[in-house]
Structure formats: C-alpha cells, structure tokens
Specification:
CATH topology of chain B: D-Maltodextrin-Binding Protein, domain 2
Order of helices and strands of chain B: HEEHEHHEHEE
Structural class of chain A: mainly beta
CATH superfamily of chain B: Periplasmic binding protein-like II
Helix content of chain A: 10-25%
Largest sheet of chain A: 16 strands, antiparallel, barrel
Radius of gyration of chain B: 18 Å
Shape of chain A: globular
Oligomer: heterodimer
CATH class of chain A: Mainly Beta
Number of domains of chain B: 1
Number of helices of chain B: 5
CATH topology of chain A: Porin
CATH class of chain B: Alpha Beta
Shape of chain B: globular
Helix content of chain B: 40-55%
CATH architecture of chain A: Beta Barrel
Number of helices of chain A: 5
Structural class of chain B: alpha/beta
Strand content of chain B: 15-25%
Number of strands of chain A: 16
Number of domains of chain A: 1
Number of strands of chain B: 6
Strand order of the largest sheet of chain A: 1-2-3-4-5-6-7-8-9-10-11-12-13-14-15-16
CATH architecture of chain B: 3-Layer(aba) Sandwich
Distance between the termini of chain A: 34 Å
Strand order of the largest sheet of chain B: 2-6-1-5-3-4
Largest sheet of chain B: 6 strands, mixed
Largest interface: A-B, 24 and 16 residues
CATH superfamily of chain A: Porin
C-alpha cells in the first residue's frame, strides 16, 4: 500500500510539473544495463561443504536494467531493477525515485534509493564494482541498510574553486537484510556463521536465523546522512551516521518468548582519494545496539574497517582490499586481490581471490570469476 | 644520396599533411551569443564530462556529443579526454548507476549538432573540421 502511495504521489507531482514545462526542454532518456555470469569456489571450509553439500558453483550472478528519464530540466526519475540470487521479489526493484532540483544546493528525492552512507553501498551494481564480491559493508548490512523507501534531501556548496561541501540525508523504511545469503553459493552475508568447526552449531545457527526472520526481512524506520568535503577534485572526506529503532525476539525455550525494542546507532568516516588513475578508499565505522530489556538481551558493538587500492591501466585494473570486522560474536579479516579487465564497453572480466583470516577454523580461500555484458 | 633526401622530404611533407588533417578533424562550436573565445583541452574535457557546468556568465553549459559510432567522436574523445569512446561510455554508465549526472545529449550528425547549438545559448558541441559552421561560433583549443 505504501509503495502504491509513493508511485501515485510521484506520478501526480510529475503531471503537475509537466503542465508547467519549459517548452525549450526536450525529455531526455537514458538506458543502460548488464548481465553477469559468476563462478565461486571455496577451498578449505569443511563446515560449509557439509551444510551446503558443495563448494563450487556457476550461475547468473546478477542482471540489471537502469533507466533515467528527465522530463523536465529539474526533474529526474530513476529506476533500477536488479536480479540477484535469493532476493525477495519486492527487493528486485533496487531503486525507483524521482528527484527535483530546486537549486544545486537543495534537491529533494522521494521513492526507493540506495543509501550512500558508504562508497561501497553505491557500488552495489557489477559495473560499479571492480571486484565480484561486494564489500562486507554491503553484504552483511550490519551498520546500515542497502536502500530505503523514503525521502532524501541533498545538495552541494562550492566554497571555493577547489573546495566543495555536500550533504545527503535520508529517512524512511528499510528491510533488515542482515545475514541474507549472497553470492552464487550463499556464503557471503553469512560468512561468520560458517566460522565454526562444529557443523551442528552451524546448522543450529542457520535454523535460528531463518526461523527468526520467518522467511521475510523485518521492516523498520530509520534515518541517516553524511557530509562530504571535497578538495581539488581529488580527496574526499566523509562523516556519516545512521539511526533506527528495531525489535529483537528471543526464544530460550518453546514456551518462552522475549521481545524488546532496540536503539541502533552507527557512525563512521570514509576517505576517498583519486589521482590520475590511482584510487584509494578507506573507512572506519562503529555500531552500537542497545536493547531496552537489558535483563534478557545484551548490548553489543560492532566495528568495520575497510581499505581498497586500485590502479587503472586503461583496460586492466588490478586492486587489493583489506576488510576487518569485529562483529557481534566473531571477528575476522578478509584480504582480497583481483584484476578487472574491460577490453570493450560491452564486456568485463573479473578474477578475484579472498583469504579469510580468523581464529575459529583454519584460514581458507575463496576464488571468484565473473563475465559481465553491458549494454 | 639524392634519392634518399627526396624520400625523406616527401615523407616529411606527408607527415605534415597528416598532422594538419588530424588537427582539422574536429572543431569546437558554441552559440554566437557565447562570449568565450578559447578553452583549454582540460576545460573542454571537464565540460563534456559535466564536471564544469556553468559558463563565466553563470549560464548553464549544455554539451552535445556526436553519436558513439561517429568517427569524429572517436577522434574528439581520444584528443580531448585521452580516452576511447568505450572508456567514456563506461564512465557514464558508472555515473548513472551512482545517481550522478547523465551523459550529454547525442546527435546523429554535424547538421543536428549545429542546429542544436544555434538554438541554445549555453550549448557547446563539436563537428568535423571541414563542416561549414557559419551559423555558430568556432572557438580555439589552447
């Protein structure tokens, strides 16, 4: 019902504004999309092989169509439909929003859109991401959601020729997609669950996750935003935060259920540096979950650190990443190295290697390949 | 020895002709009301990548590309952006997916570019070096 309401509002506003259209403006449209075939191989993780019955797979990794329509000079309508394995039908619409530009300093957007609190969130789509696996910031959804149905205000100020300040704030409803399986084999997003030598405990955890969510992602309201400082078109510093109130349920035995409201706050900083063909990104984020019922639920903290380096040799881009997560119950580090080869606009090939370093099982590897066709 | 000198001389003349032809492969055009006389390569690149969006008089810049299949677009892209057309298309795909700017308007041929630039004060485009651009203003690249 809420989605229908948003669509009706957007259509009504569009119709009203088209009536006042500047006759010189011609509607601009732009379509693009892609289709990716992916392969994954997990080496040396016995708990995963035993639970899933396989450690290698090939399949459609993702497919997406984006359309941008600008019926008026100040109005832009974006839609992105994305297929990834195991997404709910309603989440296949990754974005559907209208944005009105009052001035460069003040724009308003309404609908569903990606929450740009971290560069990784904006790299949700295969052509945006050098690699195959999305960063842990995105797959594990531990600190903020991927997208939101709501309202956004954003804008930028040119403080001088070489210094720009931008802001971006959003509020609305989101799906709590944490611990959703991602990737061909369903390993990513639930990495921490499989860091356990006892397969019974792994199965028990998976059952608990799927029973708690009852096959659906709970929905909550949240708000978040960031400030972005840009220097000489090369260096960007961001400070960002997200806040929401969620609910937790615990069933210590079949006859007993505890429920509580939870205050969730996350905040962090991102640094982005581009010089010629060299790119660097680094982030440090902190999250805190504070339950109202402190007797039956625990307060917990999470930390996520991210570092990425890449250099573009025209068609070939080698890159490396370090990701450190100090999670609710487990800590691990993921090292990544890979190469992205795009000989033509239409074709991209990716090869990626991950090494998981942690203290729960023997360190293990994941290898991924991807072939992407863009149009 | 005389033959070698002749060959070298012919070769040099040939190279000069080729270079002159490349330099005339495209020219940048703006509306006749636009005050700008010249732009640097970097400025032209920033304009067509929508990183520079206003003229000095605060008029909105409207860049106009030729079709991605146009030979002159390939030359323009390699000369001005130091990138192939495919690389620029990849840049725009990323930009659009990131919710940032959309690519410039594309016109099918020189006549359509000239018509558009003539009708829009803030517009800037490029056409073949041999095309008649009497209806618009040609600017130089520093």
């Amino acid at each position: 019902m809420r989605k229908l309401f948003f669509v009706i509002v957007m259509l009504s506003v569009t119709k009203l504004l088209v009536a006042q259209e500047n006759n010189e403006w011609k509607t601009q449209t732009f379509f693009t999309g892609y289709f990716a075939l992916n392969g994954e191989y997990i080496n040396g993780l016995p708990s995963f092989e035993e639970v899933k019955g396989k450690n290698i797979g090939f399949n459609i990794g993702e497919a997406s169509i984006l359309s941008t329509i600008q019926p008026l000079e100040k109005l832009k309508i974006n839609s992105v439909i994305t297929y990834k394995p195991r997404l709910e039908l309603s989440d296949i619409i990754a974005e559907l929003s209208g944005e009105w530009q009052f001035t460069d300093q003040f724009l308003v957007k309404a609908g569903r859109f990606l929450l740009p609190l971290h560069p990784a969130n904006s790299q949700y789509y295969a052509p945006m991401n050098y690699g195959v696996a999305l960063p842990i910031f995105v797959t594990n959804h531990s600190l903020f959601p991927l997208n939101i149905n709501g309202i956004n205000i954003n804008g930028k100020f040119d403080l001088s020729d070489n210094f720009q300040l931008a802001y971006d704030f959003s509020g609305g409803q989101y799906s709590k997609m944490s611990r959703n399986e991602a990737g061909i084999l369903g390993f990513f997003g639930r990495d921490g669950v499989y860091l356990n030598e006892d397969v019974n405990q792994v199965n028990s955890m998976i059952t608990k996750i799927e029973n708690t969510e009852n096959g659906k992602y709970p929905k909550y309201f949240g708000t978040g935003g960031k400030f972005n400082f840009k220097f000489y078109n090369m260096l960007q510093l961001e400070i960002a935060a997200f806040y929401s109130q969620e609910e937790l349920t615990k069933k210590p035995d079949p006859q007993t259920t505890y429920e509580t409201d939870v205050d969730f706050l996350s905040y962090g900083t991102n640094v982005i540096f581009n010089y010629n063909k060299f790119n660097m990104k680094a982030s440090a984020w902190y999250g805190n979950e504070k339950p109202e019922d402190k007797q039956h639920f625990e307060e917990y903290n999470i930390e996520l650190y991210y570092g990425e380096l890449s250099y573009s040799f025209d068609k070939i881009t080698p890159y490396g990443k370090v990701e450190i997560i100090n999670g609710r119950s487990k800590d691990w580090t993921r090292l990544t190295g890979g190469v992205n080869f795009r000989p033509l606009f239409e074709t991209t090939f990716k090869l990626e290697y991950h090494r998981y370093l942690q203290d729960y099982v023997d360190d293990f590897d994941v290898i991924q390949i991807s072939a992407v066709y863009s149009f | 020895m005389k033959h070698i000198c002749k060959i070298i001389l012919v070769g040099m003349i040939f190279l000069l002709i080729v270079n002159k032809a490349e330099a005339q492969d495209f020219k940048i055009i703006v509306n006749k009301a636009n005050q700008v006389e010249s732009l640097s390569k970097k400025e032209v690149s920033n304009i067509f990548l929508k990183q520079k969006i206003k003229w000095e008089d605060k008029t909105k810049i409207i860049p106009v590309d030729l079709s991605s299949k146009s030979q002159h677009r390939e030359v323009f892209s390699s000369n001005i952006h130091n990138k192939s057309v495919n690389q620029v298309r990849a840049y725009w795909q990323q930009s659009v997916f990131a919710g940032k700017a959309s690519p410039p308007l594309e016109k099918s041929d020189d006549a359509a570019v000239i018509e558009y630039v003539k009708a829009n004060k803030g517009a800037i485009g490029y056409v073949s070096g041999l095309t008649n651009t009497g209806d618009v203003k040609t600017i130089t690249i520093n």
